[in-house]
Specification:
The structure is a single chain. By secondary structure, this protein is mostly beta strands. 5% of the residues lie in helices and 48% in strands. It contains three helices and 46 strands. The protein has a 28-stranded parallel β-sheet that branches. A twelve-stranded antiparallel β-barrel has the order 1-2-3-4-5-6-7-11-12-13-14-15. Strands 8, 9, 10 and 16 form a four-stranded antiparallel β-sheet that branches. The protein is elongated and about 120 Å long.
């Protein structure tokens, strides 16, 4: 364009007539009575004072060039005063925006304050990238200090009204959708893995739509302002240096949000009149990116703007120091710094910042095309790794062959005993793996499985899972490897000790273990007889097993050396018919300072327990925690349905004790509750400074099918109990909260002749009740049906 060529010629002319690029353009030459000896003292490394400054800014989304010209209108006297100047500016960026600026400025040389201060006013006339004319007035304030720092503020006021226009446009939409058909094949066993083949067929449909549009664009200048503080970071007063900038900006919003943020910059001045740097803006609206690079150069024009040509004949400023006269000596950089700032260029945004809104008035489809591609992926997944296969029957058909005594645990050559599978986990997998046991073979596995102890290789096992074909392994597409068979028959039991983790799922266990438990572990006889013993197993799971015909505990969890043990006992059926006295269905015991056992006992069915169906006990300052003891069904409890006993300053916490059902007859006991051997559907005893906390004791039902018997005869010496709470020893406490429990008794109504009642609390005991807790002599909080009675 002609105006662009004119600017280029002017800048070239200034460059050619410059007598000393980088020298002090305001170190005015002149004659005086005494000669002045001026030594070189470049001031431009302190900044880029102008008067011709060329600047480039480069961001990821924007390239912008700017030229500024400052010309003095007068020069102040040596002792300080007012300097006025004019300003011209031209800016263009690769978005197509052009901006022209005219301005006037006035600054004062304040020699006593060692500073220069002044004001500016600019008129910015811009043609935006949308070809709209948007103009603004800009007002600026500048303060330069002789110590090498300066401060600048700018305020921008639009003077153009909103611009609006309609234009024709176009848009291409590309939408893509996929339909994936997945085919999964029956999982199969091979080696020590369970694998599953699959086939994925993916159809990708791409729709390309060309649209013509009628758009309305609205554009309006934003009012706002900015402030910058610049200071020297490194370098000498008149040598190469590094400068820094801190600042902030704000612009109002019209169609979109306001623009507000902090800005910072770092600049290097390697030689007179040159500057390179980088700037960061908290918002990317100003330059299309948060980061921009800057390059600038100042061109001196002292051959044009010489004071003599403006009527000035006084000696050079470089000989003037602090208002005390004029010294014919070497140049003084600080004075030069201030005098040069009288006409220095000030940082500002020399173009309006606009707010643009584009709306679609109408659009119509010009053309549309559809394409489809089909890809097919075929492969295999590993469903389960590190598996020892055990099968004491014929080949199954899913890859598991008939087992042999000389097997290696692969699907092609399985073991025929469970113990051999456990040994293989140690010798082949290094102590961590899964033993898959085929059920429904027609043969019984007759053995005691010892893991984590004894002389077999399984003594080296750390983590093991015994899983039968009852549940198998869940595969993709709803398919199961194994699954839906009967339980694997085991004449014996599991003796698991000192493991990180263990799981027993899907076994029909009869007879019990053949060896006695560890020292200190409850043992009715001397030869084991446990269905499952988990001794110091940090994480234990027993699920979907049936246990019967054992001579000791159905499932015994015992922890005397694990600080954070956990166990889950779910969906097991335990029938202890014929077991000797003192045998419990499920028993969890934790012993010792610093030891903890967390246990969940859910959805179990326990029959014919000679002593307790579920027994939880703690000793010696240990902690037993149960998240859930819920939905267990107990039929034919001997003495107690659920027994919870804390001893020796230990703690028991149960978060949920709910939905349990105890049917049948429990032992008949002395209603005075003067001993610790009394029984009930739920017995809770805190002994020797133990603390027991039961929360959410809700929805439990006792005596549903066989109502609990009331006492008859003198002294009511023949009663049965629903809940039984007893504290012994100083410092023991029981805290209970809950509601909605039901206890059914037969015999006469409460208070009638021959009624013994049903003691809930021992006479004289104190129970620390929760907000909805049980209260002494008030059963309304725990029973929602009559009859009830508290002694």
């Amino acid at each position: 364009a002609p105006h662009q060529n004119a600017f280029a010629l002017v800048f070239a002319f200034f460059s050619l007539i410059s007598t000393s690029f980088g020298a002090d353009s305001f170190r005015f030459s002149g004659k005086s009575k005494a000669p002045v000896s001026i030594e070189p003292c470049s001031i431009y490394p302190c900044e880029m004072p102008g008067p011709v400054t060329l600047t480039g800014r480069f961001g990821e989304s924007l390239v912008e060039g700017q030229a500024d010209l400052i010309f003095p209108l007068n020069t102040p006297p040596l002792e300080g005063g007012l300097a006025t100047f004019g300003m011209l500016s031209y800016l263009r960026n690769d978005y197509g925006q052009e901006s022209y600026s005219l301005g006037l400025g006035a600054r004062w040389l304040l020699t006593e304050a060692n500073a220069v201060m002044g004001y500016r006013i600019h008129g910015d006339f811009a043609e935006t990238a949308l070809e709209n004319q948007v103009n603004q007035l800009a007002f600026g304030f500048d303060l330069f200090h002789g110590k090498g720092w300066d401060f600048h503020t700018n305020f921008y006021v639009p003077v153009s009204s909103e611009r609006s226009r309609r234009i024709d446009g176009s848009r291409t939409d590309v939408s893509e959708s996929q339909i994936r058909n997945e085919t999964y094949y029956d999982p199969y066993a091979t080696g020590h893995q369970v694998r599953q083949g699959y086939e994925y067929e993916t159809t990708t449909r791409t729709v390309t739509t060309d649209l013509s549009q009628v758009l309305q664009q609205r554009e309006k200048g934003r009012a706002g302002g900015d402030a910058r503080f610049l200071f020297d970071v490194y370098g000498k007063a008149c040598g190469p240096k590094v400068r820094a900038m801190l600042g902030a900006y704000y612009y109002e919003g019209h169609f979109s949000d306001e623009i507000f943020g902090a800005m910072t910059g770092l600049y290097f001045i390697p030689s007179p009149g040159l500057q390179v740097g980088a700037e960061y803006y908290g918002d990317d609206e100003l330059y299309g990116d948060h980061w921009i690079a800057t390059v600038g150069a100042s061109i001196p024009t002292d051959s044009i703007f010489n004071p003599g040509k403006w009527g000035r004949k006084e000696p050079a400023y470089s000989g003037y120091v602090g208002g005390k006269g004029y010294t014919p000596a070497a140049a003084h950089c600080q004075t030069d710094y201030l005098t040069s700032r009288l006409y220095a260029n000030a940082p500002r945004l020399a173009r309006p910042v606009t707010d643009v809104e584009t709306t679609v008035i109408s659009e119509e489809i010009v053309s549309q095309s559809v394409s489809e591609t089909v890809t097919v992926e075929v492969g295999e997944k590993v469903i389960q790794d590190d598996v020892m296969f055990v099968n004491n029957g014929a080949a199954v058909g899913n890859g598991v062959n008939a087992g042999t005594a000389g097997g290696d645990g692969t699907a092609e050559n399985p073991f025929d005993t469970i113990q051999a599978g456990a040994d293989g986990v140690a010798t082949t997998f290094g102590g961590s793996g899964t033993v898959y046991v085929q059920g429904g073979t027609g043969n019984t596995y007759t053995e005691t499985i010892n893991v984590g102890h004894g002389g077999s290789p399984a003594a080296g096992v750390t983590d093991i899972a015994f899983v039968t074909s009852l549940k198998g392994f869940q595969a993709c597409g709803g398919l199961v490897f194994g699954g839906d068979t009967v339980l694997a028959d085991l004449a014996g039991g599991f003796d698991l000790r000192n493991l990180n983790s263990a799981q027993v799922t899907g076994f029909s266990i009869t007879g019990g273990t053949a060896n006695a438990g560890p020292a200190g572990v409850p043992d009715t006889g001397a030869a084991g007889g446990y269905g499952i013993l988990a001794y110091n197993v940090q994480n234990f799971v027993a699920s979907c097993n049936t246990i019967s015909g054992v001579s000791d505990r159905g499932i015994l969890l015992f922890n005397d050396s694990v600080s954070n043990g956990a166990a889950s006992i779910t969906e097991n059926t335990i029938d202890l018919a014929g077991a000797p006295a003192g045998v419990n269905g499920i028993e969890a015991v934790v012993v010792g300072v610093g030891n903890r056992l967390g246990v969940d006992i859910i959805d179990n069915n326990i029959l014919n327990a000679p002593d307790c169906a579920i027994h939880l006990e703690s000793f010696d300052n240990a902690l037993l925690q149960a998240t859930n003891v819920s939905n267990n069904t107990i039929n034919g409890a001997g003495n107690v349905g659920i027994s919870i006993i804390g001893n020796d300053t230990s703690t028991i916490q149960i978060d949920q004790l709910s939905g349990n059902t105890v049917n049948g007859t429990v032992a008949r006991v002395d209603p005075a509750l003067t001993t610790t051997t009394t029984a009930a559907s739920v017995r809770v005893e805190a002994n020797d400074s133990a603390n027991i906390s039961l929360s959410n004791v809700t929805g439990n039902q006792f005596g549903n099918t066989t109502a609990l018997a009331r006492g008859t005869g003198a002294g009511n010496a023949d009663a049965e109990h629903g809940f039984r709470f007893l504290e012994t020893g100083a410092g023991s406490s029981i805290t209970v909260s809950g509601s909605g429990n039901t206890v059914n008794w037969d015999g006469p109504a409460a208070g009638a002749a021959g009624d013994s009642g049903n003691s809930v609390f021992a006479t004289g005991d104190t129970v620390n009740a929760g907000a909805l807790g049980f209260q002494v002599n008030s059963a309304a909080a725990i029973f929602d049906t009559d009859p009830y009675r508290l002694d």
